[in-house]
Amino acid sequence: MPTKVQAITFEVEDQLYGIETCLLQEIIPILKIKPIAKGPAFMVGVINLRGKVIPIVDLRKLLGAQSGRYTFDTRIVVGCIGPRTVGFIVDGIREVREFMKDQISSPVIDAPGTQLIENVVTLDSGEMIQLIALNHVMDKEELEQLALAQGDTQS
Fold it and tell me: pTM score > 0.90 for this model?
């Protein structure tokens, strides 16, 4: 078992989150997003990334926050949920950080809507980073909606 975990840290509505780098493919600037008619509420639309249609999800909505305006710092974090490549809009990237296993603990709250927070990292400064579990970001029904919406764009 590794003693360190590497994660990309980013902000969503002034809260600090992270995703382990091994779960990500890339980070890109915000691109023109094509809306999908009758797409799921959490899905902003799709982008064409080097010839591949990628669904884009507003991470703010999944975290229970209001959708915000895109700024110069807004980024799309591209990762995989099962077999599906998905882009998540975040307010801004902070940095890639390494955490020691002893800095990581389970989330304190186990309530509906908190299942996508896998762990919490407490830094020496007292700042906390919530690590997102990509495999829990969407449930089975939402993944099916995503597949249907993405399939609609390819026909």
Answer: no
